[in-house]
TrEMBL record:
A Pfam family per the record: MutS_V
GO molecular function: ATP binding; ATP-dependent DNA damage sensor activity; mismatched DNA binding
Natural source organism: Caproicibacter fermentans
SUPFAM superfamilies, per the entry: P-loop containing nucleoside triphosphate hydrolases
Protein name (database record): DNA mismatch repair protein MutS
Alphabetized UniProt keyword annotations: ATP-binding, DNA-binding, Nucleotide-binding
Signal sequence segment: none
Gene3D superfamilies on file: P-loop containing nucleotide triphosphate hydrolases
Length: 502
């Protein structure tokens, strides 16, 4: 049995190799906040959510396939949580049994496999019962296929057949084995036989004719005889024990995959409930094909900031379709970095099949997401900050492919204005020639002004708004780069207010 709730044609693999830049993305986009909310202190949910978020889908059909399944889960959260609980119970079934441990003792393997399989059958019956009751509420192709598989594979005939086999394998009436004798009367070619199930009436047993047979008895104190008989029994049931053990493994693997794939959707449900409690909107994004320059959204906000502050966050509206460079300047603490983080988070969430933190969102699928953020001073650095920035940029370039999305935040500002502007200008032009898409937050006026003077149709310039009294709106609007970032506003706020307070 297959689950197919994450991919249309394959299983979701845990412990798959994650992107080489996962640590940078984790730090720059503050992904820990997002993942902790999805996990709700469940380590398994955290692990699955992390791997799903970092394992991007790179085609529109795959994103929409998972997105439709998520819509089903959001519409039926109690049913999905019930399925998840059943899958967890199934994985707990082997605990307390010797199953799979005493691999050299067929009798122990068989007995424990019978016990575990009996528990698993009960759980499979529960899953079918859930499907019989609730499958009509699920409309996605993935869940419809899942419920159809449950109905076809887990029929009444199937459960009755398994029940009878498990009953027979308990060998309550003893074990019937055939064998051949070799030199020295050593047994070989042991074959487990099915015992006759019909019971004779007492008159038939009394007067009936039976085939000639020989028997022997072992006394209670004959340890050697008991050991020899036990070895013969193990030889006879060995194949049956291994077959049932493998069947049990197969059923357990189904439950393991069901739990793993449902864990992602449980994480999404947990996240949506927290955001709904805050009062923030959610939208199912419209992904466009790789290479199409789309970025259009309403009320896009930083989901991690909202989760941290536990209150609604001011979002942004923007239509930057057909643009490859979005350059962002403006007042200090005006919301530029927050906006940049919201872009990266929304892209990751869209490309793993999730909803996004916005009222509406449309964006092109990127071949990779990269961040180049200014780092705090590190005393362990063996070279200067500019060398460190250029080294990270070189590493990013080594991994780039056309139509990647790169987020720059105050990059190349570790040197003087002229040198930093020239470095940034050359890197941006080279990346645009290689068909990359860039969001670039900067305070380098020479760099921003030069691009604005020579701007092309593929560029758009945004500026963090500042009111006349110095108040920040924390929203971005199209605007020409200015020479000042209004740092004096911060000076007056910090020092003048402290003097008044003093």
């Amino acid at each position: 049995m297959k689950v197919f709730l994450m991919y249309r044609d394959r299983d979701f693999e845990l412990k798959k190799e994650l992107p080489w830049n996962q640590e940078a993305l984790f730090q720059d986009l503050e992904l820990g906040t997002l993942l902790k909310t999805m996990a709700q202190d469940d380590e398994f949910l955290y692990q699955v959510s992390k791997e799903a978020v970092f394992t991007s889908l790179n085609d529109r059909e795959s994103i929409l396939y998972r997105q439709e399944i998520l819509k089903d889960c959001m519409a039926n959260p109690d049913v999905v949580r019930q399925l998840y609980t059943l899958s967890v119970q199934a994985q707990e079934a082997p605990k307390g049994h010797y199953w799979g441990t005493f691999v050299h003792f067929p009798n122990a393997i068989l007995d424990s496999s019978v016990e575990v399989m009996s528990v698993l059958m009960d759980i499979l019956k529960s899953i079918r019962a859930v499907g019989d009751t609730h499958s009509g509420a699920f409309v996605s192709g993935g869940f419809q296929r899942f419920w159809e598989m449950i109905r076809e594979e887990l029929s009444d005939d199937y459960f009755e057949t398994v029940r009878q086999h498990l009953k027979d394998l308990k060998f309550n009436g003893g074990v019937l084995i055939s064998a051949e004798l070799t030199e020295g009367n050593k047994g070989t070619d042991y074959v487990l036989r099915k015992s006759a199930q019909t019971k004779q009436r007492w008159l038939e047993r009394l007067f009936g004719t039976n085939a000639p047979a020989f028997s022997f008895y072992i006394t209670d104190r004959d340890e050697s005889g008991m050991r020899a008989l036990s070895e013969i029994r193990d030889e006879g049931i060995n194949l049956a024990a291994n077959a049932l053990s493998q069947s049990t493994e197969h059923v357990l693997s189904f439950f393991e995959m069901l739990r793993t794939e449902l864990a992602f959707y449980i994480g999404c449900i947990n996240l949506s409930e927290q955001l709904q409690h805050i009062g923030e909107p959610l939208a199912y994004p419209d992904p466009t094909d790789t290479g199409e320059r789309y970025h259009c959204f309403q009320n896009l906000y930083d989901v991690c900031l909202a989760l941290t502050k536990k209150e609604s966050i001011i979002g942004n509206n923007l239509n930057c379709n057909d643009k490859s460079l979005i350059l962002i300047t403006g007042a200090n603490q005006g919301g530029k970095s927050t906006f940049l983080r919201s872009i990266g988070l929304a892209q990751l969430m869209m490309q793993c099949g999730m909803f996004v933190p916005a009222e509406s969102f449309q964006a092109g699928i990127c071949t990779g997401l990269y961040t180049h953020y200014r780092r705090e001073e590190d005393s362990t650095l063996e070279s200067g900050k500019l060398d460190e920035e250029l080294g990270r940029m070189s590493e990013i370039v080594d991994h780039l492919s056309p139509n990647a999305l790169i987020l720059f935040n105050e990059s190349f500002a570790a040197t003087n204005e002229r040198e930093g502007s020239e470095i940034a200008r050359q890197i941006v032009r080279a990346l645009l020639e290689r068909q990359m898409k860039l969001f670039f937050v900067t305070h380098l006026y020479e760099f921003a002004h030069d691009l604005f003077v020579h701007k092309t149709s593929q560029m758009i310039f945004l500026r963090a708004e500042r009111q006349d009294d110095g108040q920040r709106t924390f929203q971005l609007a199209e605007g020409e780069p200015l020479k000042t970032s209004f740092g004096e506003d911060l000076y007056e706020k910090i020092f003048c207010e402290s003097k008044q307070g003093g």
